[in-house]
Amino acid sequence: xxxxxxxxxxxxxxxxxxxxxxxxxxxxxxxxxxxxxxxxxxxxxxxxxxxxxxxxxxxxxxxxxxxxxxxxxxxxxxxxxxxxxxxxxxxxxxxxxxxxxxxxxxxxxxxxxxxxxxxxxxxxxxxxxxxxxxxxxxxxxxxxxxxxxxxxxxxxxxxxxxxxxxxxxxxxxxxxxxxxxxxxxxxxxxxxxxxxxxxxxxxxxxxxxxxxxxxxxxxxxxxxxxxxxxxxxxxxxxxxxxxxxxxxxxxxxxxxxxxxxxxxxxxxxxxxxxxxxxxxxxxxxxxxxxxxxxxxxxxxxxxxxxxxxxxxxxxxxxxxxxxxxxxxxxxxxxxxxxxxxxxxxxxxxxxxxxxxxxxxxxxxxxxxxxxxxxxxxxxxxxxxxxxxxxxxxxx
Length: 395
Ligand code: PMP
What we know:
Blueprint: H1 3-18, E1 35-38, E2 41-45, H2 58-71, H3 79-82, H4 86-99, E3 103-107, H5 110-121, E4 127-131, H6 136-145, E5 148-152, H7 157-170, E6 176-181, H8 193-203, E7 206-210, H9 224-227, E8 236-240, E9 250-254, H10 256-265, H11 267-271, H12 277-292, H13 295-314, E10 326-331, H14 333-346, E11 348-349, E12 352-353, E13 363-367, H15 375-391
Parallel strand pairs: 2-11, 4-5, 4-6, 6-7, 7-8
Antiparallel strand pairs: 1-2, 3-9, 8-9, 10-13, 12-13
């Protein structure tokens, strides 16, 4: 190893370990469902984004197996070189129909979807107005585009309006975009899309909504854009296929000419092999299930309400989430980590989230109830919260 690399790694890894910021990743020994097995112990899993429980659904598993038998396990090469599987086309048609748009394009992950889509349209002559709490993949996608990034205060529509006005009046930018998460994953709040659309109309902004945590959850499962009836107003509807859909991948849904452009100009589409046939078949099955009935979505919301109520009654600060995401705000970073460790020891797998992922002093346990949790599991989790909360003096 080059000496310069060795000293860089030693110095920085050490520094993280000393500060207690080196994240040791837990090894999961089985399926990622409402419970998971870690160190031979079954824990109630409140840490996954598997909102509808589809990651372990038998119909999805069977669809993947059938596709593997017919197509094999890999897509072979990038789609523009080796041809595109009919499975990918069928999925994209289904996604467009599901999202109420003319067309859709799929990517290998939600993360690289943002890297792909933003930089395919925006460049150094442009400006992007970005919510201060947008996901890392949006931030990186904006950086990659080389556009001027103008962060606005979280969901602060006055700040967005002022900054959009100033940017427009400066005459410095050819195109301007406003970009936001649909649902913010740390607090569970929903973006103010109707106001964002109104500001976008006023200042001629391209609109971009990443619905990673909204798809399969809000708008009877069709996402936050659908919830507000704004399918015709939002230029880019981004979604991930790894959370509620339960598999892996990401997509953009929008007008046909936008999708045509992304197919010829977005680099992860042009230079990286597509999602595997088994995954695509499982994803397509998941969308079919979501289209057919809102039963899982209803169950998810019911479980979210039940967990929130249980924790609130005990006296925990659960913030102001508008979705099933249930933060339990502890505050102090060390106490948050200790709280999470104790929950895990007692049988609830819920991780502490601290600075820099959330602002200093707002350390929290982020609970993600899913449609697959039973009442017994949630009751048991709340009981463990009570025990740990009293023990650590949080309630
Ligand atoms: N966008 C947002 C808003 C997200 O929360 C996430 C996942 N944390 C992603 C994109 C990335 O999605 P994926 O895991 O599919 O790469």
